[in-house]
Amino acid sequence: MNESLTNRQIAFVIFGVIVGYGIMSLPKNIAENIGTGAWIVLIGATGIAVIFTYVFTYLAYIHKNKTLCEYSEILTGKFISRLIVFIYTVEFFLFSSLVIRAASEVIKLNILLKTPIWSISLLFFIVIYYAVIKGLRVVGRICELYGFVIIIIMLFTHILLFTQGELINLKPFILPLSIKTYIKASVTTVIPLLGIEVIAFIPFDKNNNKKVFKYGILMTIFIGFLYILVVESCISVMGVDTIINYHNALLATIRRVDIEQLQFFRRLDGFVLLIWIMAVFTTATLFSYGTSFFASKCFNVEFKIITPIVIILSFIVSLIPKTTMEVRNILDYIGYLAIINGGVIPLILLIITKVRRYDKKI
């Protein structure tokens, strides 16, 4: 079965996996780290994410019709390759499980007050299973469709937020801090921009020409711009001192504004929650697909057989943490693992590719 994607679909897969659960608390987290200097830090973090995107895209482009499972074995040997794939499987599995749990708690708190968290999570996993079992091409089309809707509504919403904000809340634009402080904050901030490691299970074919680099890098830059727009618009409305008190800072900001001229669209929080749920769905679906894909390679089991097992285990694991804080803490640790999978491992594989001159042999 051909599971390759077009260049545009790959770009929207990158968007779908990066823009997800974390955008809800992004303004609070960055405001805590660097205050009104958030835009500088986000530019630095976007630069790091662009490098990671290029490295992963290069590896997939050079090793045509191969995923991480195949080309890591060629470069490092069977044992190390299995270890690498296992690490990716663990990250994908834990993240897809716990991001659904975290999202379910937000939905319960804001919409379905009397609905048990387990039932919201179960509904999520049922829909995710249906999407994953249809294959990568269907997932790619979902990301393309949902991504377009999410982008339009997000741009519309946050441009409107700027009209309700105060310029004074964004000053000073540049804080008098050391370069070391900005660099440290950029490295920390890069975590919400990770997720590019999903390219590890996307095989590039002859139709994925050199334009795939342009699509992937431009999408990563656009996500960085979108994050700057989200954070700056929220700070302009709430101010740094206020926004750091709300974990779901994006939703709290939306509820602060009431735009009379919009009539039916005056309550923007409903639209924001809707596109946020769509974003969480695409993120969790991609990570769930990656978990099933890598698990099938690790345990030598057919994809369609192992997928329901992965989904059931994910549902069980999602219910293990007792509190919201436990979920958030685990997701933070997974973020550090994502730095290894999204940056360190692909850089090592790139170095081996260059040292062995593998890219010159094909």
Structure description:
Keywords: Germination, Membrane, Transmembrane, Transmembrane helix, Transport. It is found in: Membrane. It is a multi-pass membrane protein. One of its GO terms (cellular component) is membrane. InterPro entries: Spore_GerAB. With 362 residues, the protein is mainly α. The chain has one domain (7-357): Amino acid/polyamine transporter I (Up-down Bundle), CATH 1.20.1740.10. The chain is 73% helix and 0% strand. The chain has 15 helices and no strands. Helix 5 (78-110) packs across helix 13 and helix 6 (117-133) crosses helix 12. The longest helix has 33 residues, at 78-110. The chain is globular, with a radius of gyration of 20 Å. The two termini are 24 Å apart.
Largest sheet: none
Low-confidence stretches are: none
The backbone outline, from C-alpha atoms, is globular
CATH superfamily: Amino acid/polyamine transporter I
What name does the CATH topology carry? Amino acid/polyamine transporter I
How many β-strands, per DSSP? Answer: 0
Distance between the termini: 24 Å
Question: What is the helix fraction of residues, given as a range?
Answer: over 70%
Number of alpha- plus pi-helical segments:
15
> What is the name of the CATH class?
Mainly Alpha
H-E string: HHHHHHHHHHHHHHH
Radius of gyration: 20 Å
